[in-house]
């Protein structure tokens, strides 16, 4: 699905997740944090490749299975049987087959369908700064991590390069339509840039050093989601972005993997770089000749490529200009309060989105919520469909006729929504959703050259797949904020998280939809929900 899509991957597919700052403020210095996060990322790579990464497990009964005793016991059970051992205590090991694509990987543009490329032998890091490309080794010939003080010296050397930004920043090409980029990439490779491109594609990962601080959370979202197009290689499996003030985020390409794998990596990098930092703000970089160790990549550009870059820039600038991002932090309560009321926190957030859209536009529309199916081998995602007859009834009661219903009746409706949402979530996670099933049948029909079954031509099928509300939630104490663009021109992209005592919501929109206004309606919806729970009257 991802690789065959021809639209630009920027905004249409690639999301971001931002780290919270390092709790020790002096460690947020750009050079210090870039060094520490790079070393921690390579430590993760080494642990992963050595087969020592703790398995990702979904615990249905954490008190029983998420314990040191169970982990010690299960270690001695042969791997062919260990799954059954975990299953007996309601612990489900999750598929981790995506993880190898985190490193040394990139998406290559090809006509009709892109390809994923991985070269695990490469030992160098790609660093982007001011639109310039640099590479240096972060692993030695024996596969050991290069000394942290050397990595620090090389990054310091890159940060001190005073060359002006290139007139034709190559990175713009990764923002293009995939067929256009595939053709231009052919020209780039045949024009004597094969070697430089190979270095970019095979690099362990891409570290982007930005030359400005982050002003606020809206600026953070724009910068980490798309930036100015010059200092990211959007095709890379992920870009680790670090701003001048140490604000850090991961921007990732979506074809190779999903949020679960990236979130695990993000959590481990945050934990390791803050609890076992490789360098301190007082550390001195190694006395080494970085001008020899660091190679600056130079690309030979002919007129066709220069024109291609200019066109890509124009398109990118025009598109990005139309994107609005806004956010709220609802402080009245979160997971703890809602669970006490026996309500699913996720169902409450989703109900608030339905109420908000109804208040703003007077209707119920196709809504998408992503759910991981990593409980299955090679599982990716399934769709939860949060808009239901239950949310519609409940939204209409809250928005259209609050005075006609007692707080008790509203609470009863919210409980119904919560129960049904829980059922949908369980079905999706267990592979019982309908979206991927229908997608697969449609794909098989096309692959076998069978005429498309009538169902797929039904306007209802078109409507349910035009997801005006596209939502995704990821929860982690290491994540400050995450986000993505709408998946349709008249939609909203809603990244949200229900924390212990507050609810965060980061929304994007294009002209024709108003993210700010939608968020005001979400806030009103949450206020109403909390009022109803507390037995108060709902204000119209």
TrEMBL record:
It catalyses: (5Z)-tetradecenoyl-CoA + (R)-carnitine = O-(5Z)-tetradecenoyl-(R)-carnitine + CoA; tetradecanoyl-CoA + (R)-carnitine = O-tetradecanoyl-(R)-carnitine + CoA; (R)-carnitine + octadecanoyl-CoA = O-octadecanoyl-(R)-carnitine + CoA; dodecanoyl-CoA + (R)-carnitine = O-dodecanoyl-R-carnitine + CoA. Keywords: Acetylation, Acyltransferase, Membrane, Mitochondrion, Mitochondrion inner membrane, Transferase, Transit peptide. Pathway: Lipid metabolism. It comes from the Eukaryota. InterPro entries: Carn_acyl_trans, CAT-like_dom_sf, Cho/carn_acyl_trans, Cho/carn_acyl_trans_2. It is found in: Mitochondrion inner membrane. It is an enzyme of class 2 (transferase). Its EC number is 2.3.1.21. It holds the Pfam family Carn_acyltransf. The keyword Lipid biosynthesis does not apply. It is a peripheral membrane protein. Residues 1-524 form the Choline/carnitine acyltransferase domain. The keyword Transit peptide applies. Belongs to the carnitine/choline acetyltransferase family. Involved in the intramitochondrial synthesis of acylcarnitines from accumulated acyl-CoA metabolites. Reconverts acylcarnitines back into the respective acyl-CoA esters that can then undergo beta-oxidation, an essential step for the mitochondrial uptake of long-chain fatty acids and their subsequent beta-oxidation in the mitochondrion. Active with medium (C8-C12) and long-chain (C14-C18) acyl-CoA esters. This is Carnitine O-palmitoyltransferase 2, mitochondrial. It comes from Acinonyx jubatus. The lineage of its organism: Eukaryota, Metazoa, Chordata, Craniata, Vertebrata.
